Amino acid sequence: MKKAVLFLSMIFLLNACYQDDIDDLKRKYDELKAEQERQAELLATYQTLLQALENKLTISAILNTDNGYKIVFSNGAEMEITNGHTPVITIGENGNWYIDGVDSGKKSTGQDGISPQLTIVDGYWYLDDVNTGVKAEGADGSDAPYIVSIVDMGGVIVFYMSDGTNITMEKTEILGLYVLSEGTMGNGNGQLVYYDYNATTGKYERNNEKRFQNYGDTPNDLLIYGSKMYCAITGSSLAGGLVRIINPASGETIRDISLSRESVTLQPRRLTALGSKIYVTLYSGAVAWIDTASYATDIIPLSGTYTEGICADGQTLYICNSGQGEGNTVSVVNTATFTETETITVPYNPVNILNAGNNELYLNTASVLNGPATGNPANLYVLSTASKQITHTFNLAVESIAIGRNHIYGAATNWEDYGGILKKITIANKSVSDFTTVTNKLMFAYKLSVHPVTGEVFLTQQMGQEINRFKADGTHIETLRTGQQNGATVVFVNKAK
Predict the structure, then answer these.
(1) Which of 64-78, 110-124, 208-222 has the lowest mean pLDDT?
(2) Nearest-angstrom CA–CA distance, 111 and 175
(3) Is the dihedral of CA 274, 251, 453, 100 positive or negative?
């Protein structure tokens, strides 16, 4: 009997030891998993900062979130700061340092214009050697450096890291916007108009000194990239068109570039930028690049015709071949070799294409007036770059699309009553909603643009001169007038403070 009791006692003891080992191993597993997740977040943060620095981006906004802060960059990219409490230090209207919105009582500029010393001592922020009582650490120790505090210095944002280093990035100031109007086809009356942004009133005011009428026949697209602005002026089918390179600060032309193949001047349509090059689609069924420094060019033909919208995903271009209603392909172009590697079959008359991330492109077709799909209405689709297939159809008759931070916007005119529709599509779940209730501002709805800093939506007017400006929530702000009809696009002029 004693042997049996001893044997059972040993079993219980062994089971208890095994359970302790299991619990210890589970604890270590959970700690390792948590550390891996934290390291993954840090890696994503570093990657975002690195890309922002490489692309010379500025910071548009710092927004509060439930778990920390969201940094919005000048191209609309966002970075979440969620590793514990990360104080944001700013300069208030009274000139004092504010820590998480609380006045520290310390002036941000000392006597004789000398800024006070801002340091971290024993894990706390010190201003002029005085402890503010605010911890600088965002999380407890780790091997990899992480962001411990964010300091808004007025003109720059400084990210202080746990290893004592810091990263400085410039802030964004809204200056104004350009509106490119097509004018009327065949009349050569395309127009470029500049509007100054009045920070006091929050409104845009037309600058008539930067109002140019010499933008030829049907200018179609406008793009600011780096220190220059590029305009695709389609021109006529006989004379061809050109790409105009412009100084966005003054509006003055730097040079005009004609793109020719086999002694024929081609018609530029749409623009995108990647690396050191501007890529231009050409209505003949071709794509060209222009070197932003040397202005050297190259052109390759594509499998389709009447080439329209273009976007980049990584080092690959995706290009719509509308065929004026008879085309149903998207060309895939490798920018490293500058060759068309394949075509993807899509619904007829593809005209615009946008990169929404996560291997998804948003593609819209225009209504089809001729060819095998005559009568098909405009529509919106999702095209997967992984499967090379259409993965979602919205059954939404939009003729123009634009992309914001988390949404796609689509617009079109209802030709029965000349009213317009303006829809908002949430990228994450593909849900569709009306963007605004101010429907009287949608008449002859034409082209869309989204401000990368504010998220505001701008809608131009077909056969009219109005540009309606909406808040990101759909509230109408103001109506601008260009002086010429058929607004092709709106681009935004911002700079680092």
Answers:
(1) 110-124
(2) 31
(3) positive
Residue 37, both tokens: 């997740």
Pairing type for strands 147-152 and 88-91 reads parallel
Q: Which helix (H) or strand (E) holds 375?
A: none
Strand intervals (E) in 358-399: 360-365, 379-384, 390-393
CB 120 within 8 A of CB 136: yes
CA gap 270, 91 in Å, rounded: 42
How do strand 476-481 and strand 264-265 relate by DSSP bridges? unpaired
What secondary structure letter does DSSP report for 368? P
Radius of gyration of the chain (CA): 28
> Which of 281, 188, 271 is CA-nearest to residue 236?
188
Among 148, 74, 134, which residue's Cα sits nearest to residue 103? 134
How many whole angstroms separate alpha carbon 164 and alpha carbon 404?
35
Would you say residue 37 has pLDDT above 60? yes
Q: How far is CA 124 from CA 26, 59, 106, 149, in A?
A: 35, 25, 15, 10
CA–CA gap between residue 211 and residue 222 (Å, rounded): 15
Please check whether residue 364 is in contact with residue 410, taking contact to mean a CB–CB distance below 8 angstroms.
yes
The pair of three-digit structure tokens given for residue 256, joined into one six-digit string:
């005009």
pLDDT band at 62 (very low <50, low <70, confident <90, very high): confident
Q: What φ, ψ does residue 53 adopt, rounded to 5°?
A: -70, -40
CA within 13 Å, CB half, 294 = 6
Tens digit of pLDDT for each residue in 440-482?
A: 999 999 999 999 878 899 999 998 999 999 999 999 999 999 9
